[in-house]
Every structure is written in structure tokens, then in C-alpha cells.
Amino acid sequence: MSIVGIGVDVVDLQRFAETLERTPGILDRLFTAAEQTSAKGHQLPTMSLAGRFAVKEAVAKALGAPAGMHFHDCEVSNGGAPTITLTGTVQAVADERGVTNWHVSISHDGPVAMAYVIAEHL
Amino acid sequence: MSIVGIGVDVVDLQRFAETLERTPGILDRLFTAAEQTSAKGHQLPTMSLAGRFAVKEAVAKALGAPAGMHFHDCEVSNGGAPTITLTGTVQAVADERGVTNWHVSISHDGPVAMAYVIAEHL
Amino acid sequence: MSIVGIGVDVVDLQRFAETLERTPGILDRLFTAAEQTSAKGHQLPTMSLAGRFAVKEAVAKALGAPAGMHFHDCEVSNGGAPTITLTGTVQAVADERGVTNWHVSISHDGPVAMAYVIAEHL
Fold first, then answer.
1. Taking CB atoms and an 8 Å cutoff, what residues of chain B touch A108?
2. What kind of architecture, by CATH, is found in domain B2-121?
3. Is B114 touching A (CB cutoff 8 A)?
4. Residues ≥6 apart with Cβ < 8 Å to C21
5. Whole-model pTM?
6. Each residue of C59-103: pLDDT tens digit?
């Protein structure tokens, strides 16, 4: 086993909420339809969206943050523990770097949401 | 070596302090007697208790957050570097998942305390 | 591969800015000349300095935080992904503990900057 990369991301909840409100279409650009709703089909609260956004950013950092990766190509779900499904541009970079497995954790409280990930090669 | 799981937790200090004040008995339910005091025997400041609570939550996440784990069964100490002692319900889950070693780090500043852990199998 | 240690550090931006303002000489004590400027030669904003400071603290924690390590001996740069260059006191401790490789990630938003590192032995 080797660690290919790690990533951390912290998101200020108020700034994130303001950006979502002010920028038409940004919700759909950042998140797939599935990511915008909970396992039970409810619209996710901003806090949870911020956590999922933090995962996408942390994954990008763990991959060296090359240009050209799309937000939809790292889809975050969390029925219980958070998991990610990579496709397209993001999977291509992960393959190129030899990433075969991911560890993901999310937390939010008070003013921030955050995520941390480890990309590993098994 | 393999990584069994990782966990991150962030705790808003003000909300944590308010919860401790408002909820009788919660201090004793979250922390063992040893965890409530410093190495020198002083009552720990809320900031340090929040850091220890974040470790417990991060450990739970690294173990997949199954039901039935008790807060007292992950005891956090930090004379210098933070260490954890698992017993009972938490040790049982760790054994089941093959965790043989833990890495733990805590930080607090401004509005938050946070912890991050790696559970590994050697 | 084995993980020698991990470290996390969170820095409150306002408190950090106030400390830099109030304490003559602290900027030069914490950061080398190269660390105080961006890749393009501009003075770094406080937010970025706080991120670099968080890396230094996280590296110290990953090494067990022994006494005698100097801030200048862990130099942080980030043209794209963040990297660290260890020298002197910090390299000596890293050698002693068998650290041969580092993973580093930084994030800042809203009230905080933070860093997380993994020290590994390959």
C-alpha cells in the first residue's frame, strides 16, 4: 500500500450559502441531482451540501489539483459513512496517478464544514 | 500495513460550552473522571474537553460509526501527544475491523476544536 | 510503508493577524524571507501565512512535538500543491524517527486556516 495524496478542505457556511443564493445555476454546476437530495429524497440543508463540496475540493487536492476536472465527476453520497463515486475527468486523473482506493471523512459544526481524504494505491 | 478508516471532527466551542451547561450529567456521560482533568489534576478548560470530544467522534467515524459504542470506551489523554485507550464496546468494533494501531491529532483555535485520526492494520 | 505520525492544526485568522501586528519581529521569526512572499514575489496575505504556519505546527505534531525545533527549519511553499523543505533541527528529528516522505494539505475559508500532514516511512 502507498499513499498517493491527501486533501483537506474547510468551507465557511455563511459564505457558501451566500454564493449559492447569489449565483444562478451554481447548485446544478457543483452537484448532480442525486447529490442535492438526502437518501430519503429531501433537499439537503446547506450544511450538508457544504460538506459534500468540501469532499470534492479535498479529492481534487489529493490528486494534485490539475486543471480540467469537473465537479460532477466526483459524486459524494453518505448513507451513514461518506463515499465517493468517480467518473470521467476525475477518474481519469485518479487512474493516471494509480489511485485504487479512497478514505473520506466529513464534519460540520458551528461556522464550518470540512472534509479530509486519503487517496491510496493498494 | 493498511488503512482501515479515517475520521475528522470539528466542534464549535460556543455550542459545545452551551450544551455542557444546559444538560445536567452530560459531562460525566461523555468523559471519564480521568478525562475531565489535566495531567496535573486541574479541571480541563472547555476548549480541551471539546478537543477530546472531537477525538471520540473521529474515532467513531473511522470505525464506520456503528450503533452501540459508548463514549467512555474511547478514553483520550494527552500528556504531550494525544493518545487513546479503547475498551469495551469501542475495542470490540476495532477488533472486528482489524484495527491494530491509531494515529491521533488534535487542534483548537478561535471558534473551533478539531481532531483527525487514522485507524490502521499493521 | 508505515505512518510515523500525523498532525492537524487550525489557526484563527483574526487572532493570527492580531499577533502578527502586535509582536515586532514575529513575522521574521516564524517565516523565512522566501515564505513571506508568493511565487510571483508579492507579500503573502495573512490568510496564506496562517496556512503556512498551520503546516509548521502540524509537522511538529506529526514528529511528536519535541522541544528545540525552529520554525525556519520547516519551510513551506506552494506553487500549486504545498510542499515542505526540512532542514536543521526539524530534519534531525525527522531522520531520528525514520520519516522519509511527507503528505501536506492546506485549506482556508471564513474564520480559519488549517493544515493536515502525514509523515511516512517508505
1. 10
2. Alpha-Beta Complex (3.90)
3. yes
4. none
5. 0.95
6. 999 999 999 999 999 999 977 789 999 999 999 999 999 999 999
